[in-house]
Design goal:
- This protein starts with a strand and ends in a 5-residue tail after the last helix.
- A seven-stranded parallel β-sheet has the order 4-3-2-1-5-6-7, sandwiched between helices.
- Among the domains are: 142 residues, Rossmann fold (3-Layer(aba) Sandwich), CATH 3.40.50; 121 residues, no CATH class.
- It is built from 16 helices and eleven strands.
- Helices cover 43% and strands 15% of the residues.
- The longest helix has 21 residues.
- Helix 10 crosses helix 14.
- Strand 3, helix 3 and strand 4 form a beta-alpha-beta unit.
- The protein is α/β, with parallel strands linked by helices.
- The chain binds magnesium ion.
- Magnesium ion binds next to helix 8.
Amino acid sequence: MSTTTVSLVGSTGSIGTQAIDVARADPDRFRIVALAAQRSVDRLCAQAELLHPELVAIGDASLAPELARRVPAGTEVLAGPVGLATAAVAAEVVVNGVVGFAGLPVTLAALEAGRRLALANKESLIAGAPVVQRARRTPGALIVPVDSEHCAIHQCLQASAPKSAEPDTSVVARLLVTASGGPFRGRKASELGSVSVEEALNHPTWNMGPKITIDSSTLMNKGLEVIEAHELFFIAYDRIDVVVHPQSIVHSMVELVDGATIAQLSLPDMRLPIGYAMGWPERLGTPYGALDWTTAQHLSFEPPDRTTFACLDLAYRAGRQGGAAPGWLSAANEVAVAAFLERRLDWLGIAEVVEETLDRCKDDPLDSVEAVLEADRLARVEAEAIVARRPHAP
Ligand code: MG
């Protein structure tokens, strides 16, 4: 087995730190050569001391002098968006664990350089779909999804076309994206008017960063994942369903044209999909726990409550609309979630802000990176104004 070089962009976040776990458990297979973060200097320095990468990059350039002073001798230090993009192409496999739309330059740099992209940053694919899809056609470029549902679908598709670089979807009838349902599953909108940030951050099965945890509470995460699935696997929205599965054991399913359904099951631990994407097409030798079938297991499935969790259908609407709409949806959601975390917006307000912003979507063609950035900027301006006009959160 040869060693794969790995670059971690967003190395100090939830995905990045777990990717380091995976790499350190298998040093013969993985060598981390580049680390990059937006502004967590202390954690980045600690990681550099532990891993001795060839280069480290920090998005916030004002922190570069401090970083340069503190990293081990011989480590190259880069800064700003160019620094992050350089880190992204420094290895055979790039893990994009950046949070939100800020991950777009990393996704594009990795694909345009023909790298394998272990993609945890769904927002870049959703908001920048036309330019990302173009970059994806670069020889050598390949996306292996880290998002557990899409990683599950990727694994299920291998069952019908083993080890093909781009999975064969001609035999797919439907994709079934599973959702835990989040902390508010079973509750109605009338009970959710005054939920706190702490309640929304209390996810029942997954331990993740704050943005995605709030997205899980609204089902926007699942909505974004429906768009992500459409973009990754080219399946029409009418053939992508969401199934609530509170145990988070079945990570998604693929129904084939002959009626067979293939599912991927494992414990809810992100190190499996991270390692799968880093090591593909080989399987990791290190399990992060396995299901215990000697004890009783109860797996349940139910349809989502699309009325209470309005974000789900807003995402379907934006996805079907295409063009700039998915980017507007995602940008409005980032603004609304930030406002909720800062206690400037109530939980029910997240879906309302997203809907109102989407109503104002300017459907300009997204034929360049500049157009994608401009759509994101416009959507944020609209969403911020809508948040500001609302009565203040209780
Ligand atoms: Mg997911």
